[in-house]
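ARCHIVE CARD
CATEGORY: sequence design from structure
SOURCE FIELD: tokenized fold
FIELD CONTENT:
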């Protein structure tokens, strides 16, 4: 059995998928299986999947009859039986040293559950920037790790690091909701540390910030849930047995809910936000 599984949930990625798959197959560490799940693509994505499955036995492919959306990430995880696991999106790609350097960190330190390198974002205009969500979280205390993360989940690129598979299986939410990936990352920190590799080894397409409001409207039904987009995420975390409920953690959750509420209101109800900006700023400083 391979030691690592790379899960690749894809949807209409025909323009970038070959680059993503090639970056996996060209890894210097070759003891892996690549699990691709096509979430009902309507372009040429599935044909590309079939080609790579024919030419390399390490590539396993699945095609979903119904669109799974966020749960497609869980599907590829559920198909794996390896000790370590990572995700790669169909429009992202690796340096050839990604697996080799990530697994070295995990093998060296049993207290680390996620090894994630620095990441470079690319954009259609050619602009480059480093991801802000790969910083190390290595405190010994669970509540300190979770609190640090909740105050700065950022772009959550840490989700694309290499994890201990058992930790991911114990941490993945059983159903999809807005910011499920933040919930996942926060829960994994209850099991151990996240270590950063100080080298760019993964490259991601940058998601347009303007798509955030659309994602909230799509993920959350009802005005109250839309106004507080990470409320369901927060409730799910607080119900988990290993999740700490100390004052600092709860305070960080409240702060995050306020920040995402402000972001949503500023986009959807800008006039109201302008009238209430002083009040919002006051609350944010108090937290």
């Amino acid at each position: 059995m391979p030691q690592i599984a790379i899960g690749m949930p894809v949807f209409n990625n025909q323009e970038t998928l070959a680059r993503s798959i090639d970056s996996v197959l060209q890894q210097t560490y070759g003891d892996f299986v690549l699990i691709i799940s096509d979430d009902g693509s309507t372009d040429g994505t599935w044909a590309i999947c079939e080609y790579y499955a024919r030419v390399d036995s390490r590539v396993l492919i699945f095609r979903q009859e119904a669109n799974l959306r966020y749960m497609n990430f869980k599907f590829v995880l559920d198909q794996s039986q390896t000790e370590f696991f990572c995700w790669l999106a169909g429009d992202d790609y690796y340096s050839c040293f990604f697996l080799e350097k990530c697994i070295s960190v995990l093998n060296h330190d049993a207290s680390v559950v996620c090894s994630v390198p620095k990441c470079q974002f690319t954009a259609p205009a050619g602009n480059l920037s480093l991801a802000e969500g790969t910083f190390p979280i290595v405190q010994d205390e669970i509540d300190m790790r979770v609190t640090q993360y909740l105050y700065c989940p950022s772009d959550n690129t840490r989700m694309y690091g290499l994890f201990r598979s058992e930790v991911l299986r114990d941490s993945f939410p059983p159903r999809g909701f807005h910011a499920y990936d933040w919930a996942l990352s926060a829960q994994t920190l209850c099991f151990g540390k996240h270590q950063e590799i100080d080298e760019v080894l993964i490259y991601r397409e940058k998601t347009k910030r303007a798509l955030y409001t659309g994602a909230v409207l799509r993920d959350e039904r009802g005005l109250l849930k839309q106004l507080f987009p990470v409320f369901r995420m927060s409730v799910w975390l607080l119900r988990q047995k290993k999740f700490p409920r100390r004052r600092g953690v709860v305070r960080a959750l409240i702060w995050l809910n306020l920040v995402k509420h402000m972001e949503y209101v500023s986009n959807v109800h800008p006039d109201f936000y302008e009238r209430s900006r002083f009040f919002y700023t006051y609350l944010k400083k108090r937290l």
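CARD ANNOTATION: The first strand starts at residue 4 and ends at 10. The beta strands are 4-10, 32-38, 59-63, 84-87, 93-94, 112-122, 128-130, 162-164, 193-205.
SHELF: design records, drawer C
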